[in-house]
Design goal:
The chain is an alpha/beta fold. It folds into two domains: about 230 residues, Rossmann fold (3-Layer(aba) Sandwich); about 130 residues, no CATH class. The protein has 17 helices and ten strands.
């Protein structure tokens, strides 16, 4: 009787034959260095804003946009972007701030755009993206430019907590702070007066994570976007979106802007699954959908895209080109740091510390970001920031991308804040 291979045996035999070639191809691909990219083309930048690189910034090569540079030494303002953004996100406010007499510095953060770290893989070490190392990046960049201090650090979205931690950790360097879209609820507490208390190891952490299980029990089941961004599949879902990367970003930016009329934010009563479920799907997603599928249904019509003055197609193309080249994992690593809790203990070193420099908070009136973490906005004003001299400013006609949607108003708020509160005579080293 002739010997017949089963289908499984045949596949195993083929695997034995082809695996060395496949591994060799993979090895060659992995050993080929990623070509170094040059500065961002001046064609896509406003006149007076330049793109450049700064080497050896906490061990990485950092891409930076600048305005107000030149022979005259000016006090500096540092602008810190969010996700999925770039230094380019500040293009509309850089020149007005520079015109007020400042050297404006806006980096691509670690893992973004043209800065080192975009070739990171999901299984790579997370420690370069922990909060205190992100702060070190900013301190090293300021020092590389020859400043002992900057007049202000301004952070939007994910850049807001980075800016806040800059202010907490090094108040001598970051003399004032403007937080945008994401309130800073304060430094993490340390257990206090517990030496004689009954042992309840791990109970607090387990309770705090319960909300994610509760979201999955809702009808329909839901999940939080930050947890989704921490998963292995998130980068591929965004980078290789079924509708295409450019269309994904168009829908994502649209859905979180004031152009999406369903955005009608208001405070949530508590941090519960039922209250979180009131957030739009881009924050609390359907459990079985990725972000690409979540925003696809809200893709604006061609007429709406043509009418979008704050993000025309040629400007969106800058984002889709950059993320098309790098993918999103470099930015997603920071979400993984937050979700893992691996580096939370080192932040407890600053328990009880507050932001005592002059501060201000800015958000669009149509931005849910101020409310997605119930109570954070209030804690920022009453505890975390002790000198909110600029107050809380909600900007008409803007959603989450406030400095892009309403750049004139945001520029006026920042420059007025700087004029009134930011020191100018102690910024130059």
């Amino acid at each position: 009787m002739p010997y017949t291979l089963t289908r499984r045996q045949l596949l195993r035999s083929l695997a034995v034959v082809t695996t060395p070639a496949v591994l060799s191809a993979r090895a060659r691909a992995q050993s080929t260095p990623t070509p170094a990219v040059g500065p961002l083309s001046q064609v896509v930048l406003p006149q007076g804003v330049r793109s450049r690189f700064v080497n050896d910034v906490n061990g990485i090569r950092m891409h930076v946009l600048e305005a107000g540079f030149g022979s005259e030494r000016r006090p500096a303002v540092l602008l810190v972007h969010g996700f999925p953004e770039l230094a380019y996100s500040w293009r509309k406010v850089m020149l007005p701030i520079a015109a007020a007499g400042y050297h404006v510095i806006a980096p691509d953060l670690r893992g973004y755009g043209r800065t080192s770290g975009t070739d990171v893989k999901f299984d790579d070490d997370l420690s370069p993206w922990r909060t205190l190392n992100e702060v070190t990046d900013m301190v090293a960049l300021v020092s590389a430019f020859g400043y002992r201090a900057v007049s202000a650090v301004v952070g939007h979205d994910f850049g807001s907590p980075v800016a806040a931690w800059c202010a907490v950790v090094r108040p001598d360097i970051f003399r004032s702070v403007v937080l945008m879209s994401a309130p800073f609820g304060g430094t993490p507490p340390l257990p206090f007066d517990t030496a004689d208390a009954a042992q309840a190891s791990g109970a607090r952490n387990a309770a705090s994570d319960g909300i994610y299980d509760d979201l999955a029990k809702l009808t329909p089941p839901r999940k939080h976007y930050q947890r989704y961004y921490s998963t292995r599949e998130a980068n591929d879902n965004l980078w290789h979106a079924p509708q295409g990367l450019h269309a994904l970003l168009r829908a994502y930016y649209h859905m979180k802007s004031a152009d999406w009329k369903q955005n009608d934010p208001h405070p949530l009563r508590a941090r519960t699954a039922e209250e979180w479920a009131k957030l739009p799907r881009y924050y609390v997603m359907d459990r079985d959908k990725g972000m690409a599928e979540t925003v696809a249904s809200e893709m604006p019509l061609a007429s709406a895209i043509a009418a979008c003055k704050w993000l025309p197609e040629d400007e969106l193309r800058v984002y889709s080109t950059e993320y098309g080249r790098t993918g999103f994992q470099g930015g997603l690593q920071s979400y993984r740091v937050g979700s893992s809790g691996r580096f939370a203990a080192e932040l407890q070193l600053f328990s009880g510390r507050t932001i005592d420099q002059p501060s201000m908070f800015i958000a669009g009136k149509a931005d849910w970001g101020a409310y997605q973490n119930p109570g954070a906005l209030e804690r920022m004003q009453t505890n975390a920031c002790t000198r909110m001299v600029g107050g809380v400013q909600f900007v008409d006609g803007a959603g989450h991308w406030v400095q892009q949607e309403q750049p004139d108003r945001v520029s006026a708020l920042i420059t007025d804040f700087l004029r009134r509160n930011a020191p100018r005579n102690s910024s130059v080293g």
